[in-house]
Amino acid sequence: MSNPHPEPIAILDCGAQYTKVIDRRLRQMNVESMIYPIDVHASVLQDAGIKGIILSGGPHSVYDAGSPQCDGGIFDLNVPVLGICYGMQLMTQHFGGIVESCSRKEYGETEISVDTTSPLFKGLSTTQHVLMSHGDSVTQLGEGFVAIAESVSEEAGKTVNVHAGIAHQSKPFYGVQFHPEVELSTEGTAMLERFLFDICHLSGSFKLADRLEAMLAELKAHVQDRPVFVLVSGGVDSSVVAAALIKALPSEQVYAVHINTGLMRQDESDLVCDALQAIGLTHLKRLDAQDFFLDFTTLDDAGHTIGPLKDATDPEEKRRLIGDAFFRLIDAEMKATLEEAGVSADDVLLAQGTLRPDLIESGNKDVSKTAQKIKTHHNDVPLIQAQREKGLIVEPNRDLHKDEVRQVGRLLGLPEALVIRQPFPGPGLGVRMLCANTAYGLDAYDTLNVDLQHVASEFKLQAVLLPVRTVGVQGDGRTYSYVAAIEAEDFDSIHGFKAVRHAARELTNRLPLINRIALNIAPSRALASSIKTITPTTLTPEAIAQLQDWDAHVTAYTMAHADFNAISQLLAVMLPVAIDGVGSRSLAVRAVVTSDFMTARPALVGQELPEGFLSGLGRHLLGLAGVGHVFYDITSKPPATVEWE
Length: 645
Hints:
Blueprint: E1 9-13, H1 19-28, E2 33-37, H2 42-47, E3 52-55, E4 81-84, H3 86-94, E5 98-114, E6 127-140, E7 145-155, E8 158-168, E9 173-176, H4 188-199, H5 208-223, E10 228-231, H6 236-248, E11 254-260, H7 268-278, E12 284-288, H8 290-294, E13 298-299, E14 305-306, H9 315-341, E15 349-351, H10 356-361, H11 382-389, E16 393-394, H12 402-411, H13 416-419, H14 442-458, E17 462-474, E18 477-487, H15 494-510, E19 514-520, H16 541-561, E20 569-575, E21 585-593, E22 601-602, H17 613-622, E23 627-633
Parallel strand pairs: 1-2, 1-3, 3-4, 4-9, 10-11, 10-15, 11-12, 15-16, 18-19, 21-23
Antiparallel strand pairs: 5-6, 5-7, 7-8, 8-9, 13-14, 17-18, 19-23, 20-21, 21-22
């Protein structure tokens, strides 16, 4: 069902991981959005009847050769333009301003002051918190532009000002250095509303219910009378896919398979299968396949054998192995079932719960020709991509974000227990165990550890670099880098936790080789001043069982002592870091609050977590077998991702 009164906004993609978050925010406000590559010709936008343009962020520097550039004609279309991060810098450059790399890098939540006489900030707070993620800054404004927002900080005794917002004096052109589309920008949604409704004069007539109707119609047209297999984990994504298939197709066409990889949470598969049968799936089969997954090998892009999974340590290899194993197993099951039913395997389709963020973070070129790969998702490995090109993959959720999927689930009549279920990644605990045989980054360890401890001392913190690597998002690009562990005397009160969070942001801003901060919440086991050894760790059944036990304790304790329903995702991560030499491993707890999972903040003391919770959790977990240190991940996304791998 099309929008009877189209008012499309064009999002010009500069390669940002947040492009689809902009898209999601606009749709959340019932505004139709259309994503184009940054170099789209202005005439294409004019022919599409665009009512406004948003230039996204991106990981590049506008002054570099080959960096994404826009058609200057877009500024002659007589429509408002909003540049975000890289988009603001691109607009500055077009109008003769200067963008340079500066010593002050801003990654994470930053306080800015805004000019509320500007239409973009009308009625908003003069001081507010926003998400910054940039290494370059506008050092000279373009012709006709004035500054309408600034961030101010103190560094080495000097005041540092960064232009956080700009506006043209006579044309409806605006730029912000931060990301208003993400939740960490506290009044960002209001800014987008000002741009869409006050500056672009839109009415907001693009409804989710219409999109669901179109999704079901497209599903019917694609599938026709062919059988469909859906791989169901029990999470909201695959449950919504199953519900959509049941809604759009006769039930006898839909075959559901649940695979217990051995990397599930404790007793997860039993719970999953009971829930799926309750929503009316008539063909549901469970496969218990831990040995198959752990022994699985595959070929990389160069044709080299990688694996088996139980010996793999590289995160991307683990994801590739798990994704390929899923495909091989489901492919064999599909063929066996269809042979029994007398249906040709050439006619069968595979449905999966792929979300737009999965494709964006995998660097899928169908979503964006310029997006940077953050991590490969199991539902976007090359085998799946090849089947997608043949038209054999069904992905009803591929244009939705997590919060939209939940809304669609409610519209489809799914029970609330399934709709609000916390997400669990397809690779499961396989990416929640940091596997390694040797310590990470020892060549640069000593120098960075000294720098870390120097900066941490300014905030009266003890700190040590951990010799493990973790994935992050800095400047819209993927980084694999170090984790810093910190200790503070007061971390479990509202005031103390706030101070620790501020220090963590400064550490990642000033030391960009560190993308994640882990707080020691069991200080009875103090951190050493230097940690250069690890406990070799791989995906053995024994280690997996231990992590399953730790994870179950983290969940049970949090459900009993905190506002569990306010936490978007809670996870336990096994680190190959021992307290004394080699033997034990450490545990990191990650609890985040988000609606879209493209950005996130940690659950906060005084909000989701009561005062005293973290120290109580630390003491509880220290009593478990094999636990060395206990950490709480206090890093936002960015600069860290939600998952550690």
